Every structure is written in C-alpha cells, then in structure tokens.
Amino acid sequence: MEITYTLSQLPEIAAILISTSKHNPVWAFNASMGAGKTTLISELCRQLNVTDTTSSPTFSIINVYLTKEGESICHMDWYRLQDEEEAIRTGVEDALYDNKLTFVEWPDKAAGLLPSNTLFIDIDILDSDTRKITIKKVTA
C-alpha cells in the first residue's frame, strides 16, 4: 500500500496504520534523516493513548512507553548501532520477541534480528511538506 500525504494529514495516516496493522507486533521504519520517522511514531503513540513523553531513543537505543490502559509500547532507534552483534548486546532481541507493539527506526542496522511478521514502513520525502509512505506487510 502506498499513500502520499502532507504533514497536516499525519493523524489520518497514523489512524490508518493502527487500524490495518496493529496485529503486526514489530514495525520497522525506513527513511532518510529528517523524513519524519519519529514524528509519525509520536503520533501513533498519541493515538494509542501513551501517557509518557515520546522521543527518539537515539542514545538509549530503547524507550518503553506506557498507555492509559497499562500496556507497554517499545520504541527503538538503531541509528548508532554498528551491527547485529551490538544490537544483541543492547537487548533489542529480547524486546523484539516479547509480543508488545515495537517501533524500530533504522532497522537496516540489524535487519536479520527482525521477526518474520515485521511490518515495513518506508517514508520518502517528496517536498518540505509532502511524504509518500509505503507499507509492506510480511507474514510468517
């Protein structure tokens, strides 16, 4: 599925993703720097009733947020990871397979660790206000 949207339509895009893909526990966001990965993840978290402040875990690698319902959502940023071995040492593998909703930025850094049913979300910058999102569902 491909959708072109403006930044003002971000809440609508997040709602579509949630309604069509919540059964995929791991969502991998591929995009260049500044394309809006963290912005989209923040909107997803808002709509999923996250009570914590969301931000990119660039230095901590993993953030865990709680929802009003008491559920946990995991947000990872693998930008600083060198390879899969380093990812394993930081504990990302455990988080990937615990069946909670997990958002991963820069998944190419340790792609071999992603579960077989990962949802892949590519974001392309078309201009300063317009993005194209491509959603690829992979099932086991």
Question: What this model shows, in words?
Answer:
This protein is 25% helix and 29% strand. With 140 residues, the chain is of the alpha/beta class. The protein has a single domain (2-132), classed as P-loop containing nucleotide triphosphate hydrolases (Rossmann fold, 3-Layer(aba) Sandwich), CATH 3.40.50. A 7-stranded mixed beta sheet has the order 1-7-6-2-5-4-3. The longest helix is centred in the first third of the chain and has 12 residues, at 10-21. The model has no long low-confidence stretch (mean pLDDT 90).
In short:
The chain is 25% helix and 29% strand.
Write the layout of secondary structure elements.
Layout: E1 2-6, H1 10-21, E2 26-31, H2 37-47, E3 62-66, E4 72-77, H3 84-90, H4 92-96, E5 102-105, E6 119-125, E7 130-137
Parallel strand pairs: 2-5, 2-6, 4-5
Antiparallel strand pairs: 1-7, 3-4, 6-7
